[in-house]
Structures are given as structure tokens and as C-alpha cells.
Amino acid sequence: MCGIVGYIGNKDCVDILLDSLKRLEYRGYDSAGIATVKEGKILCRRCQGKLKKLETIIKSEPIAGNVGIGHTRWATHGVPSDENAHPHIVGNIAVVHNGIIENYLSLKRGLEREGARFTSNTDTEVIAHLIAKYKELPLEMAVSEAIKVLRGSFAIAVLSSKEPDKLLAIRKESPLIIGLGDSEYLLASDAPALLPYTKRVIFMNDGEIAILKRDGLLIKDFDGNVLKREPMELPWTPSMAEKAGYKHFMQKEIFEQPQAVANTIRPRLDFKKRCIHFEYFNLSKRQAEGIHKIWIVACGTSFHAGLVGKYMIERICGIPVEVDLGSEFRYRNPIIDKNMLLILISQSGETADTLAALKEGRKKGAKILGICNVLGSTLTRECDFLIYTHAGPEIGVASTKAFTTQISVLYLFSLYMGLILGKVNKEEMDGHFKNLLRLPHLMEEILRDAHKIEALAPEYGRAQNFLYLGRGIYHPIALEGALKLKEISYIHAEGYPAGEMKHGPIALIDEDMPVVVLAPREKTYPKILANIEEVKSRQGRIIAVAEPDCTEAIEAADDILIIPKMDSPLKTILFTIPLQLLAYYIAVYRGTDVDQPRNLAKSVTVE
Ligand code: AGP
Fold first, then answer.
1. How confident is the model at residue 244 (pLDDT cuts 50, 70, 90)?
2. Count of CB atoms within 10 A of residue 431's CB?
3. Which protein residue's CA is at the shortest distance from atom 4 of ligand 1?
4. CB of 172 within 8 A of CB of 154?
5. Minimum-distance ligand 1 atom for the alpha carbon of 301
6. Which of 2, 13, 47, 372 is catalytic?
7. How far apart, in whole angstroms, are the C-alpha atoms of residue 533 and residue 460?
8. Which of 76, 472, 518, 599 is deepest in the core (most CB within 10 A)?
9. Could you tell me the pTM of the whole model?
10. How far is the CA of 53 from the centre of ligand 1 (A)?
11. In what helix (H) or strand (E) does residue 144 lie, and over which residues does it extend?
12. Is residue 165's pLDDT more than 70?
């Protein structure tokens, strides 16, 4: 998944392109480059490595222009290298691209037979050659001809030195947003890149070509029909996408969680009627009764939220729930019909595997509810129902506030359905409302003790392996804690159902294997105590996450992370925060790139 930017207007665009790319670097940072048109020539600077290396090159060999495109790359075809860095230039055409051209090899062979000379191993260079092939045609027609033969996903920006008064944008499956300024237009793969310049945006749809000129914007479909698209106002400010004094975006986003959860919960609570309401999701009693099964499909952290949602929905609504990975779902020929609700959870709304599940569910007639954090993203525009998490922009590659707001939404969803189905009564709702309103304050309480978790980093930061154990609804929290640690500290970490430890993982336990145990005072608490003893009797070190009255766990553990008391499945959110902080401080201790961990990207828009 890469980041694309573009600009056309009356200002010099180089600094604007670089600044916009900086806000997209979380999408990939294997290489970066920009191209402009000046006095009938294409000027280009590009290199392997992060943006700051490109900035150094541009400082020593400046370029200028008031129309330009830029790219920050997450390599899919062709290793990170200067030659494979975008933009790719052929003749008077410059191209940047996010996505995968699935038939690029056959196209490349055909072009080579026609005499084309390739200088990279990327699929993107094929696009530049295809457009350049039609150099006799006006740019818009050349692009239309070229994209006819492309298969796969692509968001493309195109410049031509022959037509310097325009910038073309093409979207099929990979996201692309147009920013509307004052006699200027911008392009970006994601909203944070546009925020300092404009909040008026148009999210391009699949199958659209946009022709951006200083004096106007035209959007057409791939058949050339002009489309009317109304701009919308982004509800974010630039500062929301900045670090606001924190060391990393991830740290800021961990500490923003009480506010993010409050922003997600409050607008949905109807205090007068003691019920829940959603802006873009409502079912009649008959429709709700018609749902015999719920499928939840997601990837990574969002999948873990789905696993928590299963416990909530089955416990509160009594509807069977199956949770699946986006990358598996469409290949298992899932047994789905119109009496099922398919819930797709995605922070970005652009994850290819999750969007593929949407297509599969649509094909089989399921009703589709999206739970998403990014306004106007593909998921939000293609599902039947929608519930936004109001987490604000999540820039850190490791998902934190998206996860806790997703759990909040799944809880609200469970109450909403439970009320309609008569499984929850008004008195019980009083208790639920109380917990929902207390939650952000309890989260604040945990964050106030973050320094105690920071102090553990030197002791555990050199471990090579971690095991995270949890039971029931806390098993997904163990999985999420392990994912956080491994993806930002590069320590191998495994989340496991605590009851399964004796069936294998116990062989790993020794003094070098820290074990994080989630020990809520619930019905399986005695079993968790037994697991703690099993680990200790093999010299394992225990970090227990527990409530104040879990005295046995507190005494047995080597280190303890205390969680305020709460009698609700929302307590899973409280158990999550110390695990996020532990992963964050260990990663900082190990000096890894917390916001842009190696090999990762914020939103995986390829399969
Ligand atoms: C989580 O920290 C990772 N960044 C990753 O697992 C992520 O959750 C996954 O790629 C799904 O992304 P989405 O929520 O945007 O669909």
C-alpha cells in the first residue's frame, strides 16, 4: 500500500508535495519521489529510503513547478531501489500508482515486443509505457485507452509535459481523494495529507477519472460520461493529525483513547428513551428477528475486535456469531444467506481482504454492516449499513484507538439489538449506560499510571519471546497484546487461550520467557491462578494484568498492572490499555521505528 499526492495551482508545489507525502509516510516508506512540469519539461527526484532522504536530494538538486505528483512506496513488485521508486517517466509522461496491476507481466512482454525499454521491475512502469504509447492522442484519451487493458487495483496520478495545465487522477479499488482549494486542486491517497490545505474533498469512486486544472475540475467515468460529484467537509483539523507534543503518533493515539471512546459512545446514547441509536444503521424488530446468524469478518487488530464482539453479541442478544479473517473468508465458500448479517470491521475501510469479503457477502445476499473509522472510505460507501468509530485520524501503523472504539461500537450494537429483540430491558439499560459513561474516566485512571509500565521496559525489553494468556473474552485481548508487541518491537510474541497452555506452549516456559496473564476476577479466575502457578513452577516470569481484589494473582506475579474494577464486557478495553503501553515502551526502549515499523503499512490495500 503506497501514498500518492498531487497538486495543480499557482504556487510552487514541491514543498506542498513533500509535506503531503510526510503525512502519508505511514502508508509505506521503502522509497519516495516527486515529479513536476516546468517550462515544457518533466523534472523528477526519487530515491530508495524514507522521505527525509528525498528532501536532502531536493535540497542539493532543487526542482520547481506548479503542477506535480509525488509517491511514497510500500514495495509489492520490485525491491525497494532508486530504479523502482515512483514516479515512473516514459517520454513526456510521469506516473505514480498505488495498487497492483495483476496482468502487468503480459502487458510488459507485449510492450517490449513493440520496442518499449523498461528500466524497473515494477508493475507501475507498464502504466507509463501504455499511456506514452498513445502520445498522438490528447492526454485524457491516451489515459482512457491505457486503463482499458489494466486488470487489478489502481489509484494513478498522471502528468504530461505536453499538457502542463492538467493533472489526471484515476481510481479503481485503491483510494484517491481530491482536495478543492482556491484556484488549486490537490490529490491524496488519504485525508491527513490534505488537511493543512483544504477540508473540502471529493472521495473518488471506483471507475472514475478526474481531470484537474487550475480553473476547474471534471470527473468522468471510464466510458467518458461526465459525473456530478458534490464535495464534502472533512470533520478533522490538521492538529488532529499532528503529534501534539507526543513522541510518536502511537503514543498520542493511546492517550487519546478516552476521548475517542467518549466521542464514539456519547452521540449514540438516547438518555430520555434509555436506548441506543445510530446515524446510518437501524433495523425494525422484524428485520432484527430475521437475523439468524451474524458473521464478523476483519483483519489484524480489527479481527481481534470482532472476536470480542462475538462474546458481547452472543451474551447480550443470543444470536450465534462466527468470526473470520478477511484473507480466509472468501476462499472457504462461506454458507451465507439473506437471513444473515455480515459485519465488516476496518479502521481504514480500504483493506483489500476485508473489501473482498464484502463482495463475497454481497454475492450471497447477506445484509452488510460496516464498522469503520475513515469517512468516505470504500467500505463506508459500499455496505448497506454503517457505524463510524469516531476515533479521529489514526496515523500510527499499530492500531490502538481504532481497536478500543471498535469494541465500544460492538457493545453499543449488542445493546441496540438486545433492546429490539427484547433481551435487554430498560432497567438493565440503566446499568449499561452507567458503565458506558464511566468507561472513559476509568481509561484515564490507567493512563495516569503509564509511567509504572514504562519502568518495566528495561527489564523486559531484551526478551526474545513473550507469551500472552487470556480466557474467554480476554483471549482476543491476549492476541491483540501480542500483536502490538511483535509489530512494533519485533519481539516474537504469541497470544494463546490460557487453557491451551498445557497442550503445548508450556514447553516454551523458562526464565527467559515473560508471560503476560490477563486475570480478571471472573468465573475462570481460579483457572487463571492455576495457569500462573504452572508458569511459576517452570521459572517463568509473570506480568499479571488484574483488578485490585485479585490478591492471589497480585502476590504470585513478578510484576502487576492494576485495572480499575468494572462489571461489564467493556472491561476488555481496560485490559487492553496496559498491553498497548507495554508494547509501546518496550519498542521505544529497543529503538525501533514505532510509528512506521519495518515491512508494515497502515492499510493493506493489496491481497
Ligand atoms: C494492527 O495494529 C495492524 N496495523 C493491522 O493488523 C491492521 O489492524 C489490519 O491491517 C487491518 O486494518 P484495517 O482495520 O484498516 O482493516
1. low
2. 12
3. 398
4. yes
5. 8
6. 2
7. 20
8. 518
9. 0.77
10. 27
11. helix 139-148
12. yes
